[in-house]
Every structure is written in structure tokens, then in C-alpha cells.
Amino acid sequence: MGTAERLAWQRTPKKTMVVVIAALVTGCSATGQAAPARESTISIGGATVRFDGLGCVRSQSYLSILAGRAGAEVAVMLDTSGVKPEVDWIKLRNVNGLSGDVWRGGVGRARAVRRDGREYVVTGSAYGFSAASPTDLGIPVPFRIDARC
């Protein structure tokens, strides 16, 4: 963590962190009830990956979709201010041995679709690497994230 990130972290109100953590624990639902696991799935490299929970956090016009388990993490930031959601960035870390990133206007490619106002489908290919060959950088990491928020 760099100096600027450390300072931003220190200035973050503790109540804000509690609200974000509480939202992650409760899952995607705005009512505080966790969405059923069958409604939210993540596929990386063609294989569906199980996570204990998938959380959605809304802040103004942005929607974060987060999932994690021991040693693995998926994070998605969507800009929902327009008619169609836009992917700002995606971070995949050690999911089935694959890691990769997508940045709007940068590396990788991704597309997000809102299905019924609560369900988001994010698909694309991240710029990344495989734990099996960590020196081979820049491999495409295909993914699909179905999140019911």
C-alpha cells in the first residue's frame, strides 16, 4: 500500500467501513437478505468457481460486485449512471490459478448487461497470467460473472 493509499485509508470514516463490510456480509440484496447461491455464479477460464458468497455494494452511481475465498478474489466496479452499465475495472486474483485485470480504456475487454434491474452479467477477457506459468504474462483470461444484486 502506497503513501497516498495509506493516507486515504486513515481518513476513511470508520462508520463508512462498517456499512461496506455489513453490506458485503449480507450479500447482494438491498433488503439485507442474502441472494440464493444459484442466482450468482462466476466462471473463469470456462470453469464455474464456487464462492461462499457474492456481495454487491452501491455507492452513488457505482456498483461493486465482490467475491472472495481463501487465496482467491473477484472484484468488479460498474458505472451504472447511463442507460447501460459500463465496466470501469475488474480484478481477478488466483481464481482456479488464473489472475487478470480489465481497465476501461486500458487492458482487457469487458461488457456488462443489466437484465432485470437487479441482475448483472459481466463477460469478457482479462489481461493476466496463470499460476502454472507465471512468467507467461498477457494471456487472455476469459470470464463470466452473473450477479443478482
TrEMBL record:
<protein>
    <submittedName>
        <fullName>Putative lipoprotein LppE</fullName>
    </submittedName>
</protein>
<keyword id="KW-0732">Signal</keyword>
<keyword id="KW-0564">Palmitate</keyword>
<dbReference type="GO" id="GO:0016020">
    <property type="term" value="C:membrane"/>
</dbReference>
<dbReference type="InterPro" id="IPR008691">
    <property type="entry name" value="LpqH"/>
</dbReference>
<keyword id="KW-0449">Lipoprotein</keyword>
<feature type="signal peptide">
    <location>
        <begin position="1"/>
        <end position="34"/>
    </location>
</feature>
<keyword id="KW-0472">Membrane</keyword>
<keyword id="KW-1003">Cell membrane</keyword>
<dbReference type="Pfam" id="PF05481">
    <property type="entry name" value="Myco_19_kDa"/>
</dbReference>
